[in-house]
Amino acid sequence: MRNALALKERPGEEAPPQVYGWRPYALAFSASWASAMYGYDSAFIGGTLNLPSFQHTFGLADASKSAKANLSSNIVSTFQGGAFFGSAIGFFLAERFGRKPIIIVSAIIFMAGAILQMIGRLDLLYVGRVLTGWGVGSSAMILPIYVSECSPALIRGRLVGVFEIMLQIALVFGFWVNYRVNKNISPSEKQWHIPVAVQFIPAGLLVLTMIPMIESPRWLVSKGKIREAAKALSWIRHLPEDDPYILSELGKVEHAIEGEVAATGSTRNWRQIGKELFSKGVRGRVVLSFSMMIFQNFTGINAINYYSPTIFNSIGFTGTSNGLLATGVFGIVKMVATILYAVWLVDRVGRRNLLLIGGSFEQTPPLDSVAKAAVTMIYIYALFYGLSWNGIPWLFCAEVLPTRVRTAGMAFCVCIQWLTQFVVVYSLPHMVIGIKYGTFLFFGCCSVLAIVFAWFFLPETKRVALEDMDLIFGPDVFIAAKKAMRNYEELRDARVAMVDEKSGVVLREGSV
């Protein structure tokens, strides 16, 4: 029987079957508990804000409409503030100490924040939200880099896509936990303590599952730890350290990093890293990456993630239970779409095509005054967003940047992501009160702009090795998508033509 998950390799680029075994999937799954922390928080806080017990404890029950909007904005957006600084500082730490330890430390910080949120004081709730945001911001920045640097090129999109699958599963749990506690637990401290306490589960599992995992082989090579890199690569590829495939891949990584060192110098300070980040051949990738993060937020998804009960209430789903139920269905739709994207589509259809298809179906805002029609539009939006702009910006950022500046570039782009997310989640309660359905028109217009951007400027990167991204985004390649893709195809074909007939090993890129 044909394997429905199998992908076809290009001639001359075949890898031993052991490379696609369980180990890279185990690594992606272990690290992606970090995205489960992110997903659960994105979902549970909006529903918890609407629980009667939470509103009573934190002064929302008797507040005016305007005061309630301000307090809700503050409670939600302090998370984004913490995530912004967590991303920025996480870069410095991950560059110095490695990917793995920073992911583990971020989970510990997250759990400290969850403890403070359980106490029931507004000031400690704010501090706790900042710390959980800090943990998510740091881990979410490192996670796609870590997985992409450990993944075989053929299934890199699928493995980084585990990030989004775990996020969406946790998102669904967050929505439905609130629904069940509202239905089955009387309005007491226990009612809101349960959804807050569930935060400990993904954070604890992240620490436990990451301990036996390897460090990124590419980070180890960048620090001159070649022996450790060979050992780590040997484990993740399930091949002996002296296997020709391991030696070839390790040689390509060394060659790519040596080229970066020759171009930039071996001794670097933070100022020089900043200059490299915006040097010719790199700055275009950075601009594309952070632009995708901006469009991801301004298509409006986090407005629904964080305030879905409020939005469903505004279009006719009155009552706490009805709003939470509609929110739970929204989460399931988005989860199913994300699984389809990560498992079957991203490495087959490609990043660019999914962005164009998904963006085209995100444009319809819920304008109908009839509640059922409006909520249907939201579910259609969730389906196509889950297939496209949900995960691809994170994957694109993690795979296109050179190794020497990958962490710095990802940190910069993720900080932009958290900044724009902060703007959206802080503004939304006031937008719903002030401009009503104009809120959805605004997000629809942003989706149109996202399609135009993807069409003209985003090249296809599926199945392209990380060390081959320079062929797409080289210093002499124009940023327009079609030109970049044509440049890669021409150089790739030239390299394949130079395969040594005796050894069957592709010559190094420097000989192209």
Number of domains: 1
Name the quaternary structure. single chain
CATH class: Mainly Alpha
H and E order: HHHHHHHHHHHHHHHHHHHHHHH
User: How many strands, what sense, and barrel or not for the largest sheet?
Assistant: none
What is the total tally of β strands? 0
Put simply, the count of helices is 23
Describe the structure.
By secondary structure, the chain is an all-alpha fold. It has a single domain, classed as Growth Hormone, Chain: A (Up-down Bundle), CATH 1.20.1250. The longest helix has 33 residues. Helix 7 packs antiparallel against helix 16 and helix 15 runs antiparallel to helix 16. The protein is built from 23 helices and no strands.
What is the fold's blueprint, element by element?
Layout: H1 22-31, H2 33-49, H3 52-57, H4 65-97, H5 99-117, H6 122-150, H7 156-184, H8 189-197, H9 200-210, H10 217-222, H11 226-237, H12 244-264, H13 270-277, H14 283-298, H15 301-314, H16 320-345, H17 351-360, H18 371-386, H19 392-400, H20 406-434, H21 438-457, H22 469-473, H23 481-496
